[in-house]
Amino acid sequence: MNRITAFLAVTIALALPSAASRAAELVMFERPGCVWCARFNAEIAPIYGKTEESQAAPLRRVDLNGPLPADLAGIDPGAFTPTFVVVKEGREIGRIRGYPGDTFFFGLLDRILSSAGYEPARS
Question: pLDDT by residue for the chain (123 residues), tens digit each?
Fold first, then answer.
């Protein structure tokens, strides 16, 4: 019984990272001093973690003044900040250049997530 239990524990542990890697994430490329980043931070950041969208694509921030994380090496952050890139399995599936305000932001994000098979419910 102990061997089977150990085998199952190892199998589950090995499967978890691959399952997590299939999830999408919303990568926000930003720079200090960016006025539109500050506006996003004031209007969306405080509530984003409570939205349906965040369940499909958690927010990840990347400061463009630092090195690009290795797992995002194939993603072009673009010239404008903020730039929001939805990444799934290491590939870009959509992007929003700039911050268009809360209503347009969620509309554009919902369109990207829907095209990737996620169905966030907006009320």
Answer: 455 544 434 344 444 443 344 589 999 999 999 999 999 999 999 999 999 999 999 999 999 999 999 999 999 999 999 999 999 988 999 999 999 998 899 999 999 999 888 875 554
Report the C-alpha gap between 14 and 16 in whole angstroms: 6
- CB under 8 Å to 118, separation ≥6 — which residues? 24, 56, 57
User: Cβ(92)–Cβ(71) under 8 Å?
Assistant: no
How far is Cα 58 from Cα 74, in angstroms, rounded to an integer?
A: 19
**Stated pTM of the model:** 0.78
Q: How far apart are CA 95 and CA 102, in angstroms?
A: 15
How crowded is residue 5: how many other Cβ atoms within 10 Å of its Cβ? 9
Report the CATH superfamily, name and number, of domain 23-115. Glutaredoxin (3.40.30.10)
Those residues with Cβ within 8 angstroms of residue 98's Cβ, 6 or more apart along the chain or in another chain = 36, 80, 82, 83
Q: Which residue has the tokens 């463009």?
A: 64
Q: Where are the domains of the chain?
A: 23-115
